[in-house]
Amino acid sequence: MSTILITGAGSGIGAGLATELAAAGHHILATDLDAEAAEQVAARIRNDGGRADALPLDVSRDESVDALLGALPGPVDVLVNNAGLQHVSRLEDFPMQKWDLLIQVMLTGVARITRALLPAMRERGHGRIVNIGSVHSLVASRYKSAYVAAKHGLLGFSKVLALETADADITINTVCPAYVHTPLVDKQIAAQARENGLSEEQVVSEIMLKPMPKGVFISIEELAGITAFLMSPAARNITGQTLVVDGGWTAQ
Questions:
Q1: Could you say which of 63, 110, 125, 233 is the most buried, measured as most Cβ atoms within 10 Å of its Cβ?
Q2: Which domain holds residue 202?
Q3: Are residues 227 and 115 in the same domain?
Q4: How confident is the model over 199-241, as pLDDT tens digits?
Q5: CA atoms within 13 A on the CB side of 239
Q6: What's the confidence (pLDDT) of residue 205?
């Protein structure tokens, strides 16, 4: 079984992945800016008989990543770059400090933590990096300029790293789901309702699910299964790839 470090594991997709992968027998290192939330996730895993440790991590700060390296209980086999946040606003009203923060967390922060863990993966000759992208890595929606820019950039970053790590048994891939029903999405529903002058129910049906021919939210179980596959020996030659889980959105 692998030791898996998950960023943004205190809630949403990160917490769900931590729970599902721990149930499969993996050792989880749950990291989050909110150290208490990460510890709550780790404690639930341990209470269910799994193995998990919680560590504080702000991927936007070098000193936080350095502190994490000094606190790791052992080698990290798999890095899941999941930490993220959203801000919904037309560009004219988008605070540039907030714009910079989204890029720092979801693009520069991915590079920062990957850069920190990569040397040990190279030394062991093995590693798996799974980036949690988005359908917005491929398409755009109004009022999400920073998020869409960061998620598009993640694909280019992954392709470069795939080439740079091709001399070892290290892979890096990006999983791009459409909407997953998490607290982050709940906040987006409210914000989209304000910006578009719609009810929250209309946002779900007319903005979020309408582009998806299958018409349903993506589940945590799906994302955990895909992550587990990318970790497996069967996926050792899958690298630099974009795995789109969008209910047919981009097939149109």
A1: 110
A2: 179-217
A3: yes
A4: 988 888 888 899 999 999 999 999 999 999 999 999 999 999 9
A5: 19
A6: 86
